[in-house]
Predict the 3D structure of the following.
Amino acid sequence: MTRMMTLSGLVATLALTGCIEQETIAKVGDAENILFTSKGELLVTGGQSIYRMEITTNASGIKTYKPVRAYAGGDCQFAGIAQHGDWVFTVCAKPYVKWQNLTFKLGIDTQLMAANLTHSGPTTFKRLDIDWASDPLDTLTIPNGLAFTPDGKLLIADENFFGQGSVGRITLDYSGQWPAITQFEKHWAGAEYGIKSSNGVKVTDNTVFISDGGKVRRLFLNDRHELEMTVILADGTLRSNDPQANVFYQGGLVIDDILPVCGGVALTQFIEGKLVYAAANGEVYQTPPLSFESPSSLAIGQGPHFKGDDLLITEKGLLLENNSKLGNRLTRVKLPVDLNDPLTCEALGDLLSKG
């Protein structure tokens, strides 16, 4: 099944004009996030589980993509995925109702899960907090995007539509059979940096990109991997993390996922249903509105079954709905350039500098 659209903006910048096919690879209920592991597997989170794409090729060379649950537990609202070394982590949230002290107590059970890529067989996840007396992550409102800093700390976006959101930081201990949390800073980055409702988080070298409502904020880490209002980086350059200066891009109502690429940031605008590329020089390129059905994440193809000219997008559709034809899928857009090739970024940089 394919749907046609005309890409503009980023696509035009990369000299990709004309009609571009959107191919539905697989149905994934409430599709949310994408990760290619170093093992070559494609993982996708959704409203009920985290899935591993089982890919088979028939005698005619046609590939079939089947999402297989990579977690054996019950349904949970899965969100971010991130890898550090041999470990892949994901997070999900499950609402609960408890009868306590003659009253009903409502809450969110945040479940941090991990999978070890060195284990034989397909990647499967285990819930880490099952034997903990208390889980510090249960204090989060809506756990969302995950990313690792260069020193191995796990960042987690805490989305909050009616209060103060933030980005937390988790320190993990790998000395046991399974990772354990040794420290959790719930408000590692919050209101002091202008953050109100963090959603996605990505780290590239010493730069942290955070989607925050209709903004993408860019924060910088110093040589101790910490945030300050004014940061002197290892190369001696001065960077400001001030809320008035850290907005890299602004537009739309809800920016969901972000993907640093070629010095800029590609992003999904969830409500407007479009992809946007914000270049490093401030130029902005975008697809037409409603090109996608509530796009929630994007990734450049990797591994044995995908290449750098594959752009994968999760289309969520209606929130908390897993079965309709609106969204609930993993989509591929085929590009005529390889975004994994450094020469592509070099050519884009030359084009932007002339523009």
Remarks:
- Residues 1-19 have pLDDT under 50 and may be disordered.
- The chain has two helices and 27 strands.
- The CA atoms of residues 146 and 156 lie 5 Å apart.
- The radius of gyration is 20 Å.
